[in-house]
Amino acid sequence: MSRASDRAYGTIREMIMSGEFAPGDALGEEALAERCGVSRTPVRDALRRLEADMLITRTGTQRSFVADWSLDDIADVFELRAMLEGYAAQRAAERMDDDTLKALRACNAELRKAVSTSPPNVDLFLERNREFHALILESAASRKLVALLASVIEQPVVWRTAHHYGEEELRRSCSEHDEVLAAFARRDGDWAEAIMSSHIRRAFHAYADAHRGLTAIDKSGRMRMA
Amino acid sequence: MSRASDRAYGTIREMIMSGEFAPGDALGEEALAERCGVSRTPVRDALRRLEADMLITRTGTQRSFVADWSLDDIADVFELRAMLEGYAAQRAAERMDDDTLKALRACNAELRKAVSTSPPNVDLFLERNREFHALILESAASRKLVALLASVIEQPVVWRTAHHYGEEELRRSCSEHDEVLAAFARRDGDWAEAIMSSHIRRAFHAYADAHRGLTAIDKSGRMRMA
DNA sequence: GGGTTCCATATTGTATACAATTCGAGTCGG
DNA sequence: CCGACTCGAATTGTATACAATATGGAACCC
């Protein structure tokens, strides 16, 4: 898309992701426009996209605020992701061709490489991991599924805390990917669905455990994301 | 939201739904603005929303076209809807309170009333049916699920063809709703999920059968929506 | 003190003008 | 006849000005 609108989107998104804006903070169009060096018009576009991403919420009068997520909300998103990615894996298994399978194997090999160093290269891991899941999603061949998962997959919270994964968790992820590949090789949709769903669920609990250790949860059940 | 932007959204949506614009038609902002009696600014807002609804698609250079749906695409959407509504029903069953259950029973009673006349009052049926499913979705208490289902639930194709349901299908829908309610009354999440999922799947096949009888499918596998 | 009304201010909605880009027809050369 | 190129027309992107509306606090009444 266009330059200014994209820059606004990226800039605001980054500010939210990095925690520069805390959940609940008000986001005025004028202020954002100045901060991004563009006019309000592309900012409004960006805000619409960010709303779709659920990174911001809007009041009845269209005022924007940084979304805040309760632990329940986060669990919720992971649950949906587990379901949708499981479904994607099932469809992918039924449609898998040998070329894609080879590509997935290569991708997971690189994942292993990222983990084998010490300390592990987490950024590379995340990039390859994203690629792995993207390949599967593509193989699922469902336009709507792509749209749904896109809105669920890149959540701010998850993104920021992936760095807290331990080496053991990273390694286990690779093993689970292997099992997904085995299911693909046998075109076993149910197996692929089950293992993928469980893969995502484990990721959530790893996240929740790590996060519980790092941040306090106040009496209302909300946790600080910053 | 604001008046002009809403009017643009509603007007364009209606034009697509009614078939005034055929799938594949180009939608210029200027032309739409004039047709809606507003300027391009609110039209651009509306187009963004319609894109999220997947009622229109956009090229790499942001030109807009009325989306066209293959039979596979439609099957796809129903499959996702079956999964998501099944999940919603499961969560709803686990959280169901007596007041909501009573409201659902009343709602289904009205559904029956809409069917009992001859000819059946299809508009009333659709309205109450929407209410029934909305109540369940609300009880599921998942913000993200609401967002996902919203983008899947009101598809143009489905909406327009619901009128083709036969009296027998309408009656069966009520019975299936009864079974969902029975599952709710027992707080049996798995049962609720299974019956709801099957409810949606049956709706799809009823739609597909009715539609196959009414419209031709050309050699590319695409079907006319108008 | 608690609540209400009112108004200045801030914020969002819309229209319009203009810049940047894209599309496609027509042309030229092979 | 086909393909690459060019340029005018059409379309989208952005900035800005102004209108409409919401917000928050001060003044006010009970």
**CATH class value of the largest domain in chain A:** Mainly Alpha
The tally of structural domains of chain A comes to 2
Give the quaternary arrangement of the chains: homodimer
| Tally of alpha and pi helices of chain A | 10
Secondary structural class of chain A: mainly alpha
Quote the average pLDDT of chain A.
89
Helix content of chain A: over 70%
What profile does the largest beta sheet of chain A have?
Answer: 3 strands, antiparallel
- The low-pLDDT segments of chain A are 216-226
CATH architecture descriptor text of the largest domain in chain A: Up-down Bundle
Key structural traits:
Arc Repressor Mutant, subunit A; mainly alpha; 71% helix; 226 residues; 10 helices; homodimer; 2 domains; DNA-binding; Four Helix Bundle (Hemerythrin (Met), subunit A)
Give a verbal description of the structure.
The structure is a homodimer of 226-residue chains. With 226 residues, the first copy, chain A, is mainly alpha-helical. Chain A folds into 2 domains: 3-66, Winged helix-like DNA-binding domain superfamily/Winged helix DNA-binding domain (Arc Repressor Mutant, subunit A, Orthogonal Bundle); 71-214, Four Helix Bundle (Hemerythrin (Met), subunit A) (Up-down Bundle). Helices cover 71% and strands 4% of the residues of chain A. Chain A contains 10 helices and 3 strands, in the order αβααββααααααα. Chain A has helices at residues 3-17, 29-36, 40-52, 71-95, 98-116, 122-140, 143-153, 156-161, 167-185, 189-214, and strands at 26-27, 56-58, 64-66. In chain A, strands 1-3-2 form a 3-stranded antiparallel β-sheet. In chain A, strand 2 and strand 3 (64-66) form a beta hairpin. The longest helix of chain A is centred in the last third of the chain and has 26 residues, at 189-214. Chain A is globular, with a radius of gyration of 19 Å. The two termini of chain A are 30 Å apart. The model of chain A is unreliable at 216-226 (pLDDT under 50). At the A-B interface, helix 3, helix 4 and helix 7 of A face helix 3, helix 4 and helix 7 of B. Chain A binds a DNA duplex (30 and 30 nucleotides) through residues 1-5, 28-30, 38-42, 44-45, 59, 61-63. Chains A, B: InterPro entries: GntR_C, TF_FadR/GntR_C, Tscrpt_reg_HTH_GntR, WH-like_DNA-bd_sf, WH_DNA-bd_sf. Chains A, B: Keywords: DNA-binding, Transcription, Transcription regulation. Chains A, B: Residues 2-69 form the HTH gntR-type domain. Chains A, B: This is GntR family transcriptional regulator.
